[in-house]
Specification:
The radius of gyration is 25 Å and the shape is globular. The protein has 9 helices and 15 strands. The longest helix is centred in the C-terminal third of the chain and has 17 residues. It starts with a strand and ends in a 6-residue tail after the last strand. 28% of the residues lie in helices and 32% in strands. With 284 residues, it is α/β, with parallel strands linked by helices. It folds into 3 domains: 116 residues, 3-Layer(aba) Sandwich (D-Maltodextrin-Binding Protein, domain 2), CATH 3.40.190; 88 residues, D-Maltodextrin-Binding Protein, domain 2; 69 residues, Alpha-Beta Plaits (2-Layer Sandwich), CATH 3.30.70.120.
């Protein structure tokens, strides 16, 4: 089983971290290595450019892969999209110089639009019935309006900082994107069990993000109050504790952002010996 992962760029680090937490770390993978083993003898990693991965997976050079949704759509790859990995979040946008008189996509009729995404850009304007000239570039699209190459650009933005620095204003948002786990359709038929194991491992890490495991002891009579403190709690684990007074141990999963408030409320209703621990993985 070969999994194609980005070899550099904005998807590389979070992808490597995700696979490590899922138990599929790349063994002896230097920056110039094309292949790496994993702790699972059945799974190898292939490092490639993110923009090449959709076609690698489509053509069977890799059974699975991680790449951006924008690249899947741009290459029109015939692959199975298995999971949104929740990182590499960005938007594909249409932008023009802030001083431009162009205020809407329709104002670009007959004009030039520079982009690294010619298929997505062409589809966007075609659906709107706007005739433009698509100028394909390999990078730095944001400079093209200032060197006479185009009047507008279609490019990715995550925070909008690069656009602002280059005095560009978003006219329309075209596509929301993030990293996705994909699979070859034939591999899905032949190795569905293994592919599902890998998908589940990655999903369990994602589901654990922003969650904490709380354990506490409290008087049995206070159990109802604890459930009121955590109204969103779905089925806490409750166990009897051998003590001089009726006592129970309660274990529950809560959102990390609620921990501070919840602990204070738990103490108020009588909870003691409160422990909060991180969660590495959650398998549902």
């Amino acid at each position: 089983m070969k999994i194609a992962l980005p070899n550099k760029g904005r998807l590389y680090e979070p992808c490597i971290q995700l696979f490590e937490r899922a138990g599929l770390r790349a063994i002896d993978a230097g920056m110039r290595r094309l292949f790496a083993k994993t702790p699972d003898s059945e799974v190898d990693i292939l490092f490639a450019r993110a923009q090449d991965i959709p076609e690698y997976v489509q053509d069977g050079a890799a059974d699975m892969g991680v790449t951006g949704y924008d690249l899947i759509m741009e290459t029109r790859a015939n692959v199975e999209v298995l999971l949104d990995l929740k990182f590499g979040v960005a938007e594909l946008v249409l932008a023009v110089p802030s001083a431009s008189k162009i205020k809407a996509a329709g104002d670009l009729r007959g004009k030039r639009v520079a982009t690294e995404f010619p298929n997505l850009a062409s589809q966007f304007f075609k659906e709107k019935g706007i005739d433009v000239k698509i100028v394909e570039v390999s990078g730095a699209a944001e400079m093209t309006p200032y060197v006479g190459i185009a009047e507008a650009i279609v490019d990715l933005t995550s925070s909008g900082t690069t656009l602002a620095v280059n005095r560009l204003t978003i006219v329309e948002r075209i596509l929301s994107t993030s990293a996705r786990l994909i699979a070859n359709k034939e591999s899905m038929k032949q190795n569905r069990k293994k592919i599902e194991e890998i998908r589940t491992a990655l999903e369990s890490v994602i589901q654990a993000e922003g969650k904490r495991y709380i354990m506490m002891n409290l008087p049995k009579e206070a159990l109802k109050k604890v459930k009121e403190v955590m109204p969103g709690l779905a089925g806490p684990t409750v166990m009897d504790v051998v003590a001089s007074t009726p006592t129970v141990a309660v274990h529950a999963v809560v959102d990390e952002e609620d921990v501070f408030t919840i602990i204070n409320e738990l103490k108020r209703v009588g909870a003691k010996d409160i422990l909060v621990v991180p969660i590495e993985r959650m398998v549902r």
